[in-house]
Amino acid sequence: MQELDSSPSLETVIVRVTGRVQGVGFRLATVRRAHMVGVGGWVRNNDDGSVEALVQGTPDQVDQMLEWMRQGPPQARVDDLASERQFIDRRFARFEQQ
């Protein structure tokens, strides 16, 4: 039997990272890593000092991003990473800093 859609499934996850994650290049490093991994989405600072991101890609790509974001760049200190799967129709062709 032939599959109707042979392209890999996309997963979309909202991520919130807390700790020393602002003022240490976390967003720029996240954009660079996202381009290396090949995911789409965005990353931004929140007023409460956390960093929020939307990561969209194959399950393996999303896992790679979450694993990296648990550590962040060398100057960062990640205290917590919370992620929640989202079901959205929008597809992100690029990963950008907001």
Automatic annotation (TrEMBL):
InterPro entries linked: Acylphosphatase, Acylphosphatase-like_dom, Acylphosphatase-like_dom_sf, Acylphosphatase_CS
EC number, UniProt record: 3.6.1.7
Annotated catalysed reactions: an acyl phosphate + H2O = a carboxylate + phosphate + H(+)
Domain Acylphosphatase-like: 12-98
Annotated keywords: Hydrolase
Pfam families (alphabetical): Acylphosphatase (PF00708)
Keyword Hydrolase: yes
Catalytic residues in the record: 27, 45
Molecular functions (GO terms): acylphosphatase activity
Keyword Isomerase attributed: no
PANTHER family: ACYLPHOSPHATASE
Family, similarity comment: Belongs to the acylphosphatase family.
Protein name: Acylphosphatase
Annotated organism of origin: Pigmentiphaga kullae
